[in-house]
Amino acid sequence: MSVISLHTDVAAESLDDDPALARRSLVAVRDSCSRAVSELHATVEALRSPAGTTARGDHSPTPGLAEIPRLVDTVSDAGVAVHIESRGTPATLPAVVDATAYRVIQEALSNVLRHSDATRVVVALDHHNDVLRVCVSDNGRGSRGGRTTGWGLTGMRERVALLGGTVDTGTPDGGGFVVDARIPAGGPS
Asked: In what helix (H) or strand (E) does residue 70 lie, and over which residues does it extend?
């Protein structure tokens, strides 16, 4: 929803001066709204269906790592350059791990757009042994040291902890902000 809000702000501010940018932002809003509605429908369907399956036989109502390029495009359209790095050999992940990794990246990128004033973000995926490490780092202004009022980082930590993983966040010496999640690749134990 924060991406939608950001794009509507961009569209409103650029409507007179840069109609092409306003149009691109409105297309991004439409696409983001469509994806959000689809995810909501799939989630409700999964909750209502026996054994958590949907009528389509889909066991994962939320997107996974395969959807990262679309997420990156949305953030790039908002004016932040996103670079994806992948190390190791990607394994087939359980749906819950795949969805959790996606949600960590989604929340981290959403926070970049809302809070950081960053111009560049690196999303690093490290497939190592039985752990998927997801690290999102930006070149923004970093943490202001106080507690945040939102639930994004807390929810991220809780989601990853349910799988036996951890999330560390902070501002490195060089500035910016880092979200570093380690998710057991085998799913919950």
From this structure: helix 68-77
State the DSSP H helix or E strand holding residue 136, giving kind and residue range, or none if neither.
strand 131-138
- CB atoms under 10 Å from CB of 172, counted, come to 10
The DSSP line for 55-69 is TT--S--S--GGGHH
Q: pLDDT (tens digit, 0 to 9) for every residue of the chain, 189 residues total?
A: 656 766 677 778 778 888 887 788 787 777 777 766 766 666 566 556 554 444 445 444 568 899 999 889 989 988 899 999 999 988 888 888 898 999 999 999 988 988 888 999 999 999 987 899 999 999 998 776 544 555 778 888 988 998 899 999 999 988 899 999 999 988 665
Contact in structure between 2 and 113 (CB atoms under 8 Å): yes
Nearest-CA neighbor of 76 among 33, 115, 40, 109?
109
3-state helix, strand, coil in the chain (%, to 5): 50, 20, 30
Q: Is the CB of residue 123 less than 8 Å from the CB of residue 133? A: no
Phi then psi dihedrals of residue 137, to 5 deg:
-130, 140
How many angstroms separate the CA atoms of 7 and 9, rounded?
A: 5
3-state class (DSSP) for residue 101: helix
